[in-house]
Amino acid sequence: MLHRHARDQREALAGQVVSVTSPQGRFDAGPFDGHRLQDVQAYGKNLLYTFDEAPALHVHLGLRGFFLRTDDLSLPPRPATRMRLAGGRTAFSLVAPSRCEVIGDLARAELLASLGPDPLREGPGAREDAARRLATARGVVGAALLDQGVWAGIGNAWRAELLFLAGVDPTRRVQEAEAGVLWDLACHHLALGREAGQVVSDESAPDERWVYKRETCRRCGSPVRSSTLAGRTAWVCPVDQG
């Protein structure tokens, strides 16, 4: 979703002088208001905004944050809007993020250095780097996949569905070959999810999930096992991931 947000906001606002406000009053919009937005990029679960003659901006949605888009600028934003970015025709309202803050050059560099490879930002050697990081990560694969320093951008729903597709139980470690397969699956399915605006783990049924938040496996019908792993609920089919 973050990459979709970045693309949509970039296409709608980049190159424009934007109005930046904080209807909620919990964000200082002054340094950004009236400046030209240069770019919006997603890195894992982080959005980074760059402006002409203004600081960079960092947004992290956390578990509760979301954006609302409107193409009718006469509509007032929700009072709970932390930040509203408005161009000539379109506005985006940010509600309930975990972070919405100025980020300096050093902090930006440190943030990017702390992130593992992002399946939606593939580059030369990314697959090999991703496979090595996952195979050598401390702990089991279900915990490692949520560690943004191992791979960036994987959340709980993606963890459940990707491990199911790979036939891997989240409570064990993986070898590099398995990690490479997981990376390939992540690159493919996260790209589908970016276009659909949701988790897509089955191209023939985009709105369905295999095990995530299900009582039974959609493939074999076995009862789905759930447990807490790395602070989040993990769902696994004991047959297809045995």
What would you say this structure looks like, in words?
The strands form 3 sheets. Strands 1-6-7-5 form a 4-stranded antiparallel sheet, covered by helices on one side. The protein has helices at 2-13, 105-114, 126-136, 141-144, 156-166, 176-196, and strands at 19-21, 37-43, 46-51, 56-60, 66-70, 81-86, 91-95, 99-103, 225-229, 232-236. α3 (126-136) packs across α6 (176-196) and α5 (156-166) crosses α6. The radius of gyration is 19 Å and the shape is globular. Helices cover 29% and strands 21% of the residues.
Secondary structure elements and pairings:
Blueprint: H1 2-13, E1 19-21, E2 37-43, E3 46-51, E4 56-60, E5 66-70, E6 81-86, E7 91-95, E8 99-103, H2 105-114, H3 126-136, H4 141-144, H5 156-166, H6 176-196, E9 225-229, E10 232-236
Antiparallel strand pairs: 1-6, 2-3, 3-4, 4-8, 5-7, 6-7, 9-10
Helix pairs in contact: 3-6, 5-6
Sum this structure up briefly:
The protein is α+β, with helices and mostly antiparallel strands and 242 residues long.
* Strand arrangement, major sheet: 1-6-7-5
Structural class: alpha+beta
Order of helices and strands: HEEEEEEEEHHHHHEE
CATH architecture label name of the largest domain: Alpha-Beta Barrel
Note the total helix count: 6
User: Per DSSP, what share of the residues sits in E-state strands of 2 or more residues?
Assistant: 15-25%
What count of domains describes the coordinates? 2
Largest β-sheet summary = 4 strands, antiparallel
Features:
alpha+beta; Helicase, Ruva Protein, domain 3; 2 domains; four-stranded antiparallel beta sheet
